[in-house]
Amino acid sequence: AQSVAQPEDQVNVAEGNPLTVKCTYSVSGNPYLFWYVQYPNRGLQFLLKYITGDNLVKGSYGFEAEFNKSQTSFHLKKPSALVSDSALYFCAARVGSGAGSYQLTFGKGTKLSVIP
Amino acid sequence: EAGVAQSPRYKIIEKRQSVAFWCNPISGHATLYWYQQILGQGPKLLIQFQNNGVVDDSQLPKDRFSAERLKGVDSTLKIQPAKLEDSAVYLCASSLVFRDAYGYTFGSGTRLTVV
């Protein structure tokens, strides 16, 4: 079965330090990968995506993600964490849903807490 | 551009009651998705529409859940009767690109509590 795994339920990091939120995937074909962020009582907001090309993808709010095909990983990174980055982060992959269409399948999420 | 609209934002019902959620996607987005997000889990796809046709409803509990998208625009998701385990946030998303997931936009969701 095609799936996305986020091995950490929670990540704590001090403000100003670099952060990494981990994601691994298991999908058939070329992977299309995404990161979303969810703030309390809000919907999911798109951060960035990898479709093809450069393995380092830059996204919103200073976030970036590194695609590693050999390790089937797509870790989210930021050089300097802000308290306002504290939120729930979801990694997602495009999977076929039949009839030639696609949908996103999500990991279970990682709660990021940035400590002042 | 207006976002994906969902209502209500919150709903509390007793088990065995019925409830309905409404979603209005971004104008021009032909693909519409309903996801269920249980606390502590990632969103799980319930049903996917392309215009007013169902593309995938394999994970929809059809004995109690139903959804429709009349005229290929607004959509309604219904639960009848509700169970305690249906407590979750129900997210609607729409996508511009036909048959793909590039441009997902999510609504703010409806938080359902079944007591």
Describe the protein in words.
The complex is a heterodimer of chains A (about 120) and B (about 120). The mean pLDDT of chain A is about 90. Chain A starts with a strand and ends with a strand. Chain A has about 120 residues and is mainly beta. Chain A contains no helices and 12 strands. In chain A, about 0% of the residues lie in helices and about 55% in strands. In chain A, strands 2, 5, 6, 10, 11 and 12 form a 6-stranded mixed β-sheet that branches. Chain B is mainly beta and about 120 residues long. Chain B has no helices and 11 strands. Chain B has strands spanning about 5, 10-15, 20-25, 30-35, 45-50, 55, 65-70, 75-80, 90-95, 105, 110-115. In chain B, the strands form 2 sheets. In chain B, strands 2, 4, 5, 6, 9, 10 and 11 form a 7-stranded mixed β-sheet that branches. Chain B is globular, with a radius of gyration of 13 Å. The mean pLDDT of chain B is about 90. The interface between A and B is medium-sized, with 29 and 27 residues.
- Measured distance between first and last alpha carbons of chain B: 37 Å
pLDDT below 50 for ≥5 consecutive residues: which ranges of chain A? none
Integer-rounded radius of gyration of chain B: 13 Å
Q: Shape of chain A, please?
A: globular
String of helices and strands of chain A: EEEEEEEEEEEE
Average pLDDT number of chain A: 92
> How many DSSP helices of chain B?
0
Oligomer: heterodimer
The structure class of chain A reads mainly beta
Tell me the span between the first and last alpha carbons of chain A.
40 Å
Strand content of chain A: over 45%
Detail the poorly predicted runs of chain B: none
Question: What features would you highlight for this structure?
Answer:
heterodimer; A: 116 residues; mainly beta; six-stranded mixed beta sheet; four-stranded antiparallel beta sheet; B: 115 residues; seven-stranded mixed beta sheet; 11 strands
Describe the SSE topology.
The complex is a heterodimer of chains A (116) and B (115).
Chain A: E1 3-5, E2 10-14, E3 19-21, E4 24-26, E5 33-38, E6 44-50, E7 56-58, E8 64-68, E9 73-78, E10 87-98, E11 101-106, E12 110-115
Parallel strand pairs in A: 2-12
Antiparallel strand pairs in A: 1-4, 3-9, 5-6, 5-10, 7-8, 8-9, 10-11, 10-12
Chain B: E1 5-7, E2 10-13, E3 19-24, E4 31-37, E5 44-50, E6 53-56, E7 65-68, E8 75-79, E9 88-95, E10 105-106, E11 110-114
Parallel strand pairs in B: 2-11
Antiparallel strand pairs in B: 1-3, 3-8, 4-5, 4-9, 5-6, 7-8, 9-10, 9-11
